[in-house]
Design a protein that fits this description.
Blueprint lengths: L7 H10 L7 H13 L1 H18 L1 E2 L6 E2 L5 H4 L8 E5 L2 H9 L6 E4 L17 H7 L5 E4 L5 H13 L6 E4 L15 H9 L5
Parallel strand pairs: 3-4, 3-5, 5-6
Antiparallel strand pairs: 1-2
Amino acid sequence: MSQISTGAEIEQLIMLLSRLPGLGPRSARRAVLHLIKKKQTLMIPLSAALDNAVEKVIICSTCGNIDTCNPCKICLDPRRENSGSLIVVQDVADLWALERAGAGAVRYHVLGGVLNPLDGIGPSDLFIDGLLKRAPGFKEIILALNATIEGQTTAHYISDHLSEYEIKITQLAHGVPVGGELDYLDDGTLTQALKARTDF
Ligand code: ZN
């Protein structure tokens, strides 16, 4: 990154912000400038919120979700107690997406990643042992992992390790997105959609 003549503190702020997803050095510089201009209304409250989050945010030891209490509020939610369905996701962002989509009174398990032998990520690097311990308490395990090679490898690994139990294991349907046009879909998606066709 080319240096600009400014204080070391500001440089450090730009460098740290530029590490956030979706923010390169250029947008980080713009964000820092904005923060400095809005010191009272944005920078000071943001700094306090970050301090607060550093102090209070923890990972739920049951499901791997992030919250300010352990177990998290989803694990403690009495409406989800008897649902019998556990949705397995890669990251907390996926849990949030499913909650936004109204997944219902379900429980979740956040793996914290997916298996990736090329990057040296094995089962012990993920929260898989916690899942294998919890899973027998559910009727259905819904594997909501990404439709990538790593996501599907992880799904197979989990399903193999749960095969000794009487648990229904399902996964999200892969296929035509809502509002999607067939001509624009890649061949893999179209093939999956054809295989996973449903009664009309
Ligand atoms: Zn939890």
